[in-house]
Structure formats: C-alpha cells, structure tokens
Design brief:
The protein is mainly α and 40 residues long. Helix content is 72%, strand content 0%. The N and C termini lie far apart (32 Å).
Length: 40
Amino acid sequence: MTAKEKLSTTKNWELQTKLHLQRFLEKCASVFGGPGLPTS
C-alpha cells in the first residue's frame, strides 16, 4: 500500500466515523428531547 493510498483510506475512515458519530449524537438529542447539536 502506498503512502497516498494509506492517506486516502485514513481520510475516508475519518469521514465515516464523523458521520456515524453525528447520527448517533442526533439520535441521542432526539431521545432526550434536546435541541440537537449544531453541525460544524
């Protein structure tokens, strides 16, 4: 695996994780009746 491929894989993984985390936080917010979290 080249350094370039490794970098793009890491970037992709970070994006996926952020998406999952965001959805999870939104779910929590709706469960607790909160206003939700601002998306940066």
